[in-house]
Amino acid sequence: MNTFKKLLVKKEFIFFIAFATILVLLHATPSMALRTQVFIMGYPKAALTSPIVEDAYHNKVDEEKFAELNAKAYTLTHPPIEKATQGELSNFLVRKFGFFYAAEYYGDT
């Protein structure tokens, strides 16, 4: 029984390490964090195929705000269309937390 518990703990530890590694890899760069967010939002095709560019307009207009947030705006050049409103989901804000990036939808402003 003792060996079974050790084996179970070892498997749980390996699972946790694998999960943490995948999470870090999916958020290691701004583009990967953005693609992960779009995928989680339910648009896997756009997440895998749409080119990503820096949003020069929003980065210039909101420069001070983004500096405080340690963030940059990015745009999907072939954005997905939201099912409910038929709006394009093109602009995203990517924030940096140490070596970790997190993306969120910024809107079509």
Explain what this protein looks like in three dimensions.
This protein has 109 residues and is α+β, with helices and mostly antiparallel strands. It has one domain. It is 50% helix and 20% strand. The chain has a four-stranded antiparallel β-sheet with strand order 1-2-3-4. The mean pLDDT is 90.
Brief write-up:
It is built from five helices and four strands. It is elongated, with a radius of gyration of 18 Å. By secondary structure, the chain is an alpha+beta fold.
Total tally of structural domains: 1
Query: What's the arrangement of strands in the largest beta sheet?
Result: 1-2-3-4
What share of residues is helical? Answer: 40-55%
Structure summary, number of beta strands:
4
CA-based shape: elongated
SS element count, helices: 5
SSE string, helices as H and strands as E: HHHEHHEEE
Mean pLDDT metric? 90
Fraction of residues in β-strands: 15-25%
Rounded to an integer in angstroms, the radius of gyration calculated over CA atoms is 18 Å
Contiguous uncertain segments of 5+ residues: none
State the secondary-structure class: alpha+beta
End-to-end separation: 61 Å
The main β sheet shows up as: 4 strands, antiparallel
Task: Spell out the key features of this protein.
4 strands; 109 residues; alpha+beta
Annotate the secondary structure layout.
Layout: H1 2-26, H2 30-40, H3 44-49, E1 52-54, H4 56-61, H5 63-69, E2 71-76, E3 91-97, E4 100-105
Antiparallel strand pairs: 1-2, 2-3, 3-4
